[in-house]
Design a protein that fits this description.
The chain is mainly alpha-helical and 137 residues long. It is 80% helix and 0% strand. It has one domain. The chain is built from 6 helices and no strands. Helix 5 packs antiparallel against helix 6. The protein starts with a helix and ends in a 6-residue tail after the last helix.
Length: 137
């Protein structure tokens, strides 16, 4: 398990550094992403890590999609496309908790719960990113 956690920390660190460099994460968000990524991949395994990565990459791409059109809305909410710690925890915290529960109380059902959590946060994030482009409220 220690080897998996070390690998998870390294991979999460690489993804986090790239996301920070590309402007997808604020400093506090980078810390949160490193924590969430390490816990989910480290305690859940590679399938869990891939699901988290799919969420993060797709949501980051949508965050930059038609960025200019979303700028006025982003200013209204005082949030940009750089995710901070609270945003990372809002989307990844529940998944990290499920991964910890999976590690201490092993059951295949935790993966199903994790898939549900990731589907929920993905739908919420995509709806926000695309909904801000709507001409009607």
């Amino acid at each position: 398990m220690i080897n998996q956690l070390v690998l998870a920390f390294i991979l999460s660190g690489l993804v986090t550094a790239l996301a920070y460099w590309r402007g997808s994460l604020a400093k506090s968000g980078a810390m949160g992403a490193l924590l969430v990524g390490t816990l989910i991949y480290g305690f859940g395994g590679w399938i869990w890590g891939v699901l988290l990565a799919l969420f993060f990459v797709s949501s980051s791409l949508l965050s930059h999609y038609k960025e200019g059109e979303k700028q006025a809305v982003a200013e209204k909410f005082d949030k940009g496309h750089r995710r901070d710690f609270s945003q990372v925890m809002a989307n990844g915290g529940a998944g990290a908790i499920v991964a910890l529960l999976h590690a201490f109380f092993p059951s295949p059902l935790w993966l199903l719960l994790f898939v549900g959590v990731m589907a929920t946060v993905t739908a919420d994030t995509w709806a926000t990113e695309l909904g801000t482009l709507s001409k009607r409220p």
